[in-house]
Structures are given as structure tokens and as C-alpha cells.
Design goal:
Flavin reductase like domain protein, FMN binding, Pnp Oxidase, Chain A, Split_barrel_FMN-bd, mainly beta, Flavin_Rdtase-like_dom, 11% helix, 35% strand, oxidoreductase activity, acting on the CH-NH group of donors, NAD or NADP as acceptor
Length: 201
């Protein structure tokens, strides 16, 4: 099968995000200028640079009470900071609960009964029990083609790692099993790993 996205795919559901899979989930916490906390998952997310460490996530839809975007991007525009919380398999239901189109006044930490902690380098809340948290300072928001597509880039200014996830000096993902997004309503979980050395190593 071949199709041009501009012509449509003719399938019951869009296959695009099932093709680009699995994708890590950025569970983004942010705070608006009035001090209200927000927490929402984004599967268009990744690390993009080592020095300085940088990450990005993309928001692709609109909420009626946020104009041209959703709470996360609107909050980050106001405050210039956000935190990426790594999602473990054990927190899948809590993560999913925060994905709803809740009103901007709703604190998803409270709504999903998630313990929050204050970040160290930025004025923002983080998921206290997450395997890791990346505190970020906004570097740029890029407007992408499309009606509500924004890519948010941030420099990581502080990193929290849960003690039980550090094994012999290595951050061990099998200690917590990262959750990953696939297509449609499907997810996956990392339960095994293997090592490949690069040519010449």
C-alpha cells in the first residue's frame, strides 16, 4: 500500500503514529502564571542533545479554553519552564487519567491522586515517585505546519533519579520498565534489553 497523506489513507484509523513506534512518553508538568499546576502526557517526545542536555515535545491539538493550543504549551509560554516526568509501567493508569481534556483549573496531580514535589532549579511541580524527572528551561517554541502544531524545546537544568533505579552506577530502565506509546490506543513496556557495540569499539 502507498498513500499520500494529503489524499488520505482510506483506512479505519490513521496509521501514521503506529508506524513511528514505540515512542517514549514525556509526562509534562507545568505551572501557569497564577500558580496552578498541570500534568499531561505527550508521545511526540524525545531527548535531542547531550551538551547541554536538551529535550523536546510536540503538542498537536487545541482546548477550547486555551485558544490555539493546550494547557502545557500555554503554561510554558507564560512561565518559560517545564518538567519531564518519566513514565513507568506501574503508573500507566495515573498517566492515562491525566490525558483527559480537563478544564485549565483542574490540577491533574490531585485529579489522579499523584504525589507532587517541588522542582529544585525551576518553579514547577514534578511527579514525586517518577523514576526520573528532567527540570527544563524553555529555549524555543517552534510553530509547525498545521492548525495547532507546536514543538517545545527545553534545556535540562536539573535531573532527579530515583535511588532504586541506579544499579552499579547505571540508570537501569529494567528497574522500573518504561512505558511507550504505540499507535491507536496501544502502549508497550520495556522488559528486556540487549547491547550492541559500535564498529571499532
Amino acid at each position: 500500500m502507498f498513500y499520500r497523506p494529503e489524499d488520505g489513507h482510506g483506512l479505519p484509523h490513521n496509521p501514521f503514529n503506529a508506524i513511528v513506534t514505540p515512542r517514549p512518553i514525556g509526562w509534562i508538568s507545568s505551572r501557569d502564571s497564577e500558580g496552578r499546576d498541570n500534568l499531561a502526557p505527550y508521545s511526540f517526545f524525545n531527548a535531542v542533545a547531550y551538551v547541554p542536555p536538551q529535550v523536546m515535545f510536540a503538542s498537536t491539538s487545541v482546548k477550547a479554553d486555551r485558544g490555539d493550543t493546550k494547557d502545557s504549551v500555554a503554561n510554558i509560554r507564560e512561565t518559560g519552564v517545564f518538567c519531564v516526568n518519566i513514565v513507568e509501567y506501574a503508573m500507566r493508569d495515573a498517566m492515562n487519567q491525566t490525558s483527559g481534556p480537563w478544564d485549565r483549573e483542574v490540577d491533574e496531580f490531585d485529579h489522579a491522586a499523584i504525589e507532587k514535589a517541588e522542582c529544585d532549579t525551576i518553579a514547577c511541580a514534578r511527579v514525586a515517585g517518577a523514576p526520573a524527572n528532567l527540570e527544563c528551561k524553555l529555549t524555543q517554541i517552534v510553530t509547525l505546519p498545521g492548525e495547532a502544531n507546536f514543538a517545545v524545546f527545553g534545556e535540562v537544568t536539573g535531573i532527579h533519579m530515583r535511588d532504586d533505579c541506579l544499579k552499579d552506577g547505571i540508570f537501569d530502565v529494567l528497574a522500573f520498565n518504561p512505558l511507550a506509546r504505540m499507535g491507536y490506543r496501544d502502549y508497550s513496556v520495556v522488559r528486556e534489553k540487549f547491547t550492541l557495540k559500535r564498529p571499532g569499539e
